[in-house]
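Per your request, structure below.
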């Protein structure tokens, strides 16, 4: 590791190198990987893979063996590749440094997951191209482009699973439905029982009519996250 890096131990003793002062994974990635529920083996794409945390967690939990992690930032992609190599998962996980809007492999994935930038861009952030700003704000990828490209890259009857801010749930639902997705599962996440929901987990399907299931709330303090 380099001087500005440290290491986190994940489930099943997998390891993750992170930048000390860079963007670090949070509970969002962990609950997303736990919420993801593949009904069969298939090819998985993680949009905005960052340091590779979600592909590693998906392998650890589901033994998913055909995962691509894509990230527009070269710094992130390079670190993700190192993390995949550190855990000897090169046979199962591929990391690509690419703008998902230009990624050419349409109709190629059975599943897409994403922990995307949550925050809209304001005037102050418009020209902030730091790694943290791009990861947190819709500078390079907004909600419309995320959903549009998830649909483009998914096979027919493929699923798209994401974590996002609860206050944007209505907007996310509308964009998904207008883009031809049908929402199947929703779970609201609370840090504690006396707090409002801050996060929401959503599973939507391309080209499939689903009956909506609102799952029991997830309280992070009680769940050991």
């Amino acid at each position: 590791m380099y001087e500005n890096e440290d290491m986190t131990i994940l489930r099943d003793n997998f390891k993750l190198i992170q930048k000390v002062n860079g963007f670090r994974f949070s509970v969002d990635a962990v609950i997303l990987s736990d919420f993801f529920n593949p009904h069969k083996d298939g090819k998985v794409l993680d949009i905005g893979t960052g340091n590779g945390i979600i592909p590693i967690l998906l392998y650890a939990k589901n033994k998913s063996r055909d995962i691509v992690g894509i990230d527009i930032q070269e710094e992130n992609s390079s670190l993700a590749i190192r993390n995949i190599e550190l855990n000897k998962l090169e046979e199962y996980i591929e990391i690509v440094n690419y703008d998902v809007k230009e990624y050419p492999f349409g109709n190629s994935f059975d599943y897409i997951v994403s922990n995307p930038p949550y925050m809209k861009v304001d005037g102050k952030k418009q020209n902030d191209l730091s790694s943290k700003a791009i990861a947190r704000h819709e500078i390079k990828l907004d909600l419309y482009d995320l959903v549009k490209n998830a649909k483009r890259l998914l096979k027919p009857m493929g699923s798209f699973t994401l974590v996002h801010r609860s206050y944007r749930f209505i907007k996310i639902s509308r964009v998904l439905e207008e883009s031809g997705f049908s929402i199947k599962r929703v779970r609201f996440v609370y840090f504690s029982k006396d707090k409002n929901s801050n996060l929401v987990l959503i599973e939507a399907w391309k080209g499939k009519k689903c009956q909506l299931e609102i799952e029991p709330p997830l309280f992070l303090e009680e769940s050991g996250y």
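The mean pLDDT is 92.

Regards,
D.
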